[in-house]
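Throughout our pipeline, every protein is held as a single compact record rather than as scattered files. This encoding replaces a full spatial description with a residue-level series of whole-number codes. The remainder of this section carries one protein's record, kept here as part of the documentation.
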Amino acid sequence: MVQEQKTNEMQRLENAIGTPSAQKIVILLVTWQNLTIKELITKTKLSKSQIHTTLKNLQNIELVSMITRGKYAMANNKFAHLLQDAYTEKIFQTINKQIYLIKQALKGKDMETANKIYDDLYEQYEPLLTKNFRYIM
């Protein structure tokens, strides 16, 4: 019985977190700290109904919280903090890879590619870049 409850709980977590829309939203909330539904729609290119459904599922597993009407953030609990740390590490790996690609483009004197990678990187991860790489950016 206890094992069955654990299995059901894991399935519920997997169903909520395991979708591409949930992944996008969690990455954005980890990066930007809090976003409105309108900002989530703009940044993810998902429909309003997809955003609402995904946020509801993430709230049901206590991963995301509504901080004000229409504005969401990662929840303030141990599970959310652990997941946020894991996502932050993954984001930093992505940032490092993109910085390497910028460096390679600059070595090849391909300014257009370097600028495009930089612009995309900055648009996607600006708060983390400003906080952690302020002297580079």
In short: Helices lie at 2-17, 20-32, 37-44, 48-60, 78-107, 111-132. The first helix runs from residue 2 to 17. The chain has six helices and three strands.
